[in-house]
Amino acid sequence: MLKVKNVSAGYDGIDVLHEVSLNVNEGEIVSLVGLNGAGKSTLLKTISGILPAKKGDIYFDDQKVTNHSTDSLVKKGMVHVPESRFLFPALSVKENLLLGTAAKDNKFRKLKSDELFNFVFDLFPVLKERSSQRAGTLSGGEQQMLAIGRGLMSNPKLLLLDEPSLGIAPILVEKIFESLLMLNKEGITIFLVEQNVSISLDISHHAYVLDLGKVIMSGTGKEVLNNPQTQEVYLGGF
Ligand code: ATP
């Protein structure tokens, strides 16, 4: 579904990604893990058209989409939920969700706005309870659910998620990862960037390890999790 081929990208003339290649197959959860500054967010931004690729190509559903606008990619069914969440703090939960419906008419699942709201509220009941509360007053975990929920309102087939567990209490991290499994069962493909290595590799069909802008390891989630190098560098050497 998503193919990244030899992609290089960066900022101010300095490359952060060096010829990165990876694949995300339809129906899978694929993780990208790596230390701080490895270039994980930079890769997501390049895939979703926020940052230009300087070299290489990106394919979505076998179509070349390198450097296409974020808006056109959302319409094709690719949605990026960024690390910083970008919610509108003064607007209500429901208003934030409504803002995600702009590009809902892609071909994956023909859902009307009401059905999308129900889908998101079934997944995250707390958002229904708090639908008229201002987004800025939600807890960190609730804000993360809202950011994912808003992404879902555009009816994506591929969800790019940047650190959904960042700054969230462990109990809510579990809840969010359970929701990702449920979304995946619904047929949504997930490309997940995480620093929470053990939990993300545990739920992933495939995984890639990025180090200094290069893919240094790949395999099934379990293979990468059980690799001695992963254990030592990313999990503190158990
Ligand atoms: P983290 O896990 O800490 O979020 P990451 O793997 O997602 O890290 P990136 O955020 O992609 O890493 O950053 C990779 C490198 O690019 C870092 O050295 C960072 O300082 C640099 N970088 C990121 N954003 C910018 C920017 N807007 N301008 C210049 N350099 C940037």
TrEMBL record:
Keywords: Amino-acid transport, ATP-binding, Nucleotide-binding, Transport. It comes from the Bacteria. The keyword Nucleotide-binding applies. InterPro entries: AAA+_ATPase, ABC_transporter-like_ATP-bd, ABC_transporter-like_CS, BCAA_Transport_ATP-bd_LivF, P-loop_NTPase. Residues 2-237 form the ABC transporter domain. GO terms for molecular function: ATP binding; ATP hydrolysis activity; branched-chain amino acid transmembrane transporter activity. SMART domains: AAA. SUPFAM superfamilies: P-loop containing nucleoside triphosphate hydrolases (SSF52540). Pfam families: ABC_tran (PF00005). GO terms for biological process: L-amino acid transport. CDD domains: ABC_TM1139_LivF_branched. Belongs to the ABC transporter superfamily. This is Branched-chain amino acid transport system ATP-binding protein. It comes from Salirhabdus euzebyi.
